Automatic annotation (TrEMBL):
Domain of life from the UniProt record: Bacteria
Key words of the record: Membrane, Transmembrane, Transmembrane helix
Sequence intervals crossing the membrane: 6-30, 56-75, 87-104, 116-135
Protein name: Uncharacterized protein DUF4181
Pfam family, one: DUF4181
Organism: Planococcus citreus
Amino acid sequence: MYGVESSFSLALLLIVAIFLIMLALFNAIMRKWLRVEKPKAFSNNHVNDKHKKIDWSIRIFGITMMVVGYFINVMRLPQEPYLLLEPWFLLLVFLFATEIVRAIMERKYAKNPNAYLYTISQLVFLLVFLISLFTTDFFGFL
């Protein structure tokens, strides 16, 4: 039993490391190709005040939905939770929603005309990676 848990942790660490390396390489290549400046790490890069208000509205709604979804799924039997109210699912949905809003705002208001293409390419990369993880059963690691 102990060996199974340690191999799971190692496999998960390996998948996360591979993802982070691939993401860093992809972002560097796309930034250079599209001539987009590197965004600040862990900061809110809002295009304008309208974008900031929409982004915060999505965040507040997402957190509210996670709390409501948690209470609804706790009341149900553990074998029958609603997938659409699971926190990981809601997090992915609202992550994609905020990135789509960012791309729309960059398309309309950003100084660099390629900024929205960079955002969309990041979103497509993440989507392709997640789909490939789930369809290949985590590349056979898990």
